[in-house]
Write a sequence for this structure.
């Protein structure tokens, strides 16, 4: 019994020591040097364009269904993905397909990327585009092509934001921060 009491006491003292050590380490000051990096932040929400893909239901498929569920045509809808490309000084730093959110990809598209850059001037080109709809655009929620080009001057530790202005239907320079 005394051996078991010794093991429990040792475990309790070890747990107490680890807790005190973690508490002491959590109070150690930590400084981040932002002087060497700046950030180009891309952040926006866009509503995609829905496309419906319909097909005729075969007689065998209809026969397998209860009467109240039978229909002649089945349609499945989806939102078109966008392609995001970012060039800095003529070099592509980001090229990614942005898919709609949601399990069925039927929710808005969210873009959030931080691109680390050094302080100074940078020629930036952002392109956010999707395929055009066959037969033309019906209800345009977010344009098929959005772009931003410009020379940005970033200070040490500065964050410059590019966002989507839905009222103007374009990518714009927003407010950044530190």
């Amino acid at each position: 019994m005394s051996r078991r009491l010794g093991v429990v006491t040792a475990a309790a003292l070890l747990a107490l020591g680890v807790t005190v050590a973690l508490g002491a380490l959590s109070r150690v000051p930590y400084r981040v040097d932002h002087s060497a990096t700046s950030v180009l932040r891309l952040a926006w929400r866009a509503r995609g364009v829905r496309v419906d893909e319909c097909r005729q239901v075969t007689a065998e498929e209809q026969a397998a269904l209860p009467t109240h569920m039978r229909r002649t045509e089945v349609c499945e809808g989806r939102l078109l993905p966008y392609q995001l490309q970012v060039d800095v000084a003529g070099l592509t730093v980001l090229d990614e397909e942005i898919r709609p959110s949601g399990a069925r990809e039927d929710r808005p598209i969210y873009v959030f990327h931080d691109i680390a850059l050094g302080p100074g001037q940078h020629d930036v080109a952002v392109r956010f585009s999707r395929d055009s709809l066959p037969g033309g655009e019906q209800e345009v929620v977010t344009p098929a092509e959005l772009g931003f080009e410009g020379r940005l001057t970033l200070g040490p530790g500065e964050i410059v934001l590019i966002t989507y202005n839905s009222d103007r239907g374009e990518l714009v320079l927003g407010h950044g921060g530190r």
Q: What stands out?
A: The two ends are 60 Å apart (CA to CA). The helical segments are 2-25, 59-63. The first helix runs from residue 2 to 25.
